[in-house]
Amino acid sequence: MPFNVAVVGVTGAVGQEFLSILEQRSFPAESYRFLASSRSAGKQMEFAGRQYTIEELTEKSFAGVEVALFSAGGSVSKKFAPLAAQAGCTVVDNSSAFRMDADVPLVIPEINPDDIYRHHGIIANPNCSTIIGIVPVWPLHQANPVRRMVVSTYQAVSGAGWQAMEELKRQVREVLDGNDPDCRVFQHPCAFNVFSHDSKVAPDGYNVEETKMIHETHKIFHNNSIAITCTCIRVPVLRAHSESINLEFTEPMEEERVVDLLLQAPGVRLIDDRDNNYFPMPLDASGQDDILVGRIRQDESLPGKRGINLWVCGDQLRKGAALNAVQIAEYLVK
Amino acid sequence: MPFNVAVVGVTGAVGQEFLSILEQRSFPAESYRFLASSRSAGKQMEFAGRQYTIEELTEKSFAGVEVALFSAGGSVSKKFAPLAAQAGCTVVDNSSAFRMDADVPLVIPEINPDDIYRHHGIIANPNCSTIIGIVPVWPLHQANPVRRMVVSTYQAVSGAGWQAMEELKRQVREVLDGNDPDCRVFQHPCAFNVFSHDSKVAPDGYNVEETKMIHETHKIFHNNSIAITCTCIRVPVLRAHSESINLEFTEPMEEERVVDLLLQAPGVRLIDDRDNNYFPMPLDASGQDDILVGRIRQDESLPGKRGINLWVCGDQLRKGAALNAVQIAEYLVK
């Protein structure tokens, strides 16, 4: 059976990562169609040794396409994903447009792969911080239910696109040259600075990134009772997110058991070398498929050994976005 | 009564900040003696419009000196602070050498100024992350005792001295120029990266920075029952630390009450503009005396409104080190 694949938003940071991952994993597609806005349409590009012309995304783009990977922002997804689904295409959407819709599965293949088959034409890819944080938490939660999570993120600028990555590099030079950093993508300087996440802040003080992490985790885990609080922060890192995660379990949870569970967990790699002070770092996570986990420690601030601290890093553009979507698509074509 | 003041470690990052703060605050000294290692001895320096010669630190440096500000590392403090105290000098020591000694007060003037007068010649200045984190927590704890704190830090490189600040600037250029970052001060690259704090990691997995925050908070608060857990991380920021602080209170604690208490708190400035997504940032905190506090939010993951999230930033070299020590010295000369 032939699978014709469309990539929507191919010129973006996640779109470019789709290409690299589809090629690396030899995704079994019969044909590819690369779609973008009219600005990029007509441009030539190479993929897997072949030349392609970027086509403009239109209502008719999905005729004969079985699987579409979308990463072109929420408004593009809202308009075109339902049209693609109507045309018989299955959409894996990286935007937040449909994530909390009851009839749209929200999937991390290491956690809830069966949800993929409940789709009605659209499957949502979770937020990058959600994916990176909860892939290592899931195997622990299955062994001993997590009661409460306190998460603080250290998020790369890539979540705001390649322009944000260019902004960080440009601003760093501006500051070193003695000039003020020119803020175009972000409201605040990102060079040599840290700031609260650039998503909208609700009246309760939580930004959208934080709210996503809470609600998406509940949906993916099929469990609304886990108490979660988050503080989402941008750091001057290019493309991998880090998270400090404090977990409260229902029953006692020994540090050694956490290590054992994570050594067997899919999509996770332990880096926890106390003697050499070597733990996960975003530079090491960049370009990697696995979520790196370390600094696994008993949290003695909770009684009865029910607390564990973790430190995780994951590539925001890969497992946090493109890789997770391609993994979902691999289930679709299996 | 004349106060003769010695500054030990005057060429270091904190030493230089001592000079700036003593001058800005018109510290009421009769005379100054600026001390450093033999490498720097004999060099000329300017302070408050006068020329001084840096003197070599020796056992005889403290004759006739009433107050000495030490920031030359733990081993220098261990050797020379007791000698200074024997010579009748009162030492305010920025190293960790004496902080946990039972007969050495550990002081943040906004919190436990009375402890200053219990000294026996040496007063310890707390760790920078401890100071920056707990100055805003103290007024809340007085109103409603804190049961548990979960802290994740975003620490500037300045905590490792001015060489570390130079390393960050140099590495950023190296990376932008396409070269590998040359690691001299830190074991891991600091440019465009984040890593677990560079202090020694104990067999329980906690690094010394984390352990300091726990034990020093207990000592300063005169309360060993507050449960504290920390994850200490370095970020590519030059000189101000940030901390994400999750607090569990004994009684319900409304967000509005936290705001009211912090508006009146000494040494604290609120920046909490949700509409404009403007919150504390290390760039804004740099060079400032106050700890900036914002992102004050009810943490609904704890029942009964007993949870609060805070985000704080403070200048690591000023309130995190030199300013706090000079404030202590001001009490001594009052």
Main attributes of the structure:
homodimer; 334 residues; alpha/beta; 6-stranded parallel sheet; 9 helices; 29% helix; globular
Overview of this structure, please?
Two copies of one chain form a homodimer. The first copy, chain A, is globular. In chain A, helix 1 packs across helix 9 and helix 3 crosses helix 9. The longest helix of chain A is centred in the last third of the chain and has 16 residues. Chain A has nine helices and 16 strands. The first copy, chain A, has a six-stranded parallel β-sheet, sandwiched between helices. In chain A, strands 11-9-13-16-15-14 form a six-stranded mixed β-sheet. Chain A has a two-stranded antiparallel sheet with strand order 3-4. Chain A is α/β, with parallel strands linked by helices. Chains A and B meet through strand 9, helix 5, strand 10, strand 11 and strand 13 of A and strand 9, helix 5, strand 10, strand 11 and strand 13 of B.
Summarize this entry quickly.
Chain A is an alpha/beta fold and 334 residues long. Helices cover 29% and strands 24% of the residues of chain A. The longest helix of chain A is centred in the last third of the chain and has 16 residues, at 318-333.
